Amino acid sequence: MNQKEIFQQIANYWSNDMPFNQLLGLKITQFDCHQSEIRFVWQDKLIGNPMQNILHGGVTASALDLAGGIVAAANIIDQLDDLSPESILNSLKKLGTIDLRTDFLRPGRGQEFIATAKIIRSGNKVAVARMELHNEKNDHIAFGTGTYMVG
Amino acid sequence: MNQKEIFQQIANYWSNDMPFNQLLGLKITQFDCHQSEIRFVWQDKLIGNPMQNILHGGVTASALDLAGGIVAAANIIDQLDDLSPESILNSLKKLGTIDLRTDFLRPGRGQEFIATAKIIRSGNKVAVARMELHNEKNDHIAFGTGTYMVG
Amino acid sequence: MNQKEIFQQIANYWSNDMPFNQLLGLKITQFDCHQSEIRFVWQDKLIGNPMQNILHGGVTASALDLAGGIVAAANIIDQLDDLSPESILNSLKKLGTIDLRTDFLRPGRGQEFIATAKIIRSGNKVAVARMELHNEKNDHIAFGTGTYMVG
Amino acid sequence: MNQKEIFQQIANYWSNDMPFNQLLGLKITQFDCHQSEIRFVWQDKLIGNPMQNILHGGVTASALDLAGGIVAAANIIDQLDDLSPESILNSLKKLGTIDLRTDFLRPGRGQEFIATAKIIRSGNKVAVARMELHNEKNDHIAFGTGTYMVG
Q1: What ipTM describes this predicted complex?
Q2: Which of B49, B53, B101 to mutate to test the interface with A (most CBs of A within 10 A)?
């Protein structure tokens, strides 16, 4: 497998076999070493404020954390010499979120939501990503910053 | 209704009628103007890392955000002269998370999880809370800091 | 005075009469309701790590906080009907940093440093700004996010 | 030298030979692997708001960053087998702040200020510390959270 096929497999795995991502409907639609994109559609169960019908802040945080985590994962894989499944799985065990800041800008309203992440600091131990959440009308709903353990 | 009964009604409403809190099983077990406590039990659907069987970081963020939000809500209600349902509902519409920082300390393993929050800055416009997540063995899983709009 | 002249006066005041900004040599070179720019030159007294000759992290935080605070101040003034000095001074008394996050990306090396800020959330009570610090070679040294009380 | 003497030498060095710490008057009065204490006295040059005579937010951030950094440094040294000066200097080169969050609770007024830090996550790559700033009357002025590279 080349790197692109590996990334595709990981995207499928993380979208389909990670219980909480499935529960929220988070789909990894794109990722490489520099950026990632997560999409999910509105579902009533994601409501955090029934008076206002908006996303729970935890949904926003979950999507931003996944977007940042997946681009951090791409950075881990990009530094591997050995691209065997064992080597990849082993290296991904080191991945973990150290801290996450979410800035809520506007109420989470919309039919579809798009979380994007870009790496702003990459290293062999720690990576930092900046994330954004928009809806299908391109309303900017939230910013995020995540620090990830990668080695 | 006195303030204690009002807080009890809000706890029931937030635990039982907020779809995302129900989905995660978050229960408000205590709250007043100074502190709050949220409890939830392990469920496989909350898994964020199937290789390690640990909570998704977004579950942790959701529980911490709720714990901080409810103590911020108590501060809003505490400043009201009129404790009619209309007045309370109207004042709670102003509540919103401005920003949330989560520090992940240990993997989210356990059978039951307890999120607690304390107010560290209270005002008539903005409140800031510090939160912690522990499991039933008192392992310290995460810290949080949330800034809330309250007026 | 029109708004532009008022902003110029405030820039002069904040650059020349604020003791800590003077001590660090922070100069407000531009600001309006959307963005701001602060510049300062390398001085040995700003060193935080004599083995490496790089800026103290607190210098970076100070410059980012000023850049964010000044654009928050512009938002306060922009909402005033009465642009008399008394009204402006009175409204600026409400300005305060609620919280500030600094992400350090690269060592703070250079001859001149440029901090920029953009408003990402503006309201009549709270404003949120994102900041960046670069050196004269456009190396990206730090990111910041600040939440400010404005009303 | 035993560990205690080494810590004393580092405290002297960081207090007396780090130009920005000297400029602000930051003195390391205590530190070990678990906690640290920094003290500094009021000086007019630390003023960030001449209308209110309070500390610049950057002074607060600087003191909190130093308090967290020194306890992270103690963790680095505690993991060394070789306590020669070369080994210690070499290991401290890895120390760096990844991110710092400051929560401002009250105006920075007082005659003396005390910053304290405690380690909340320690590892061989990354350490996380929580910090507090009080004045001589024990008024709580600020909270901080810092993530540090240690390996």
Answers
A1: 0.94
A2: B49
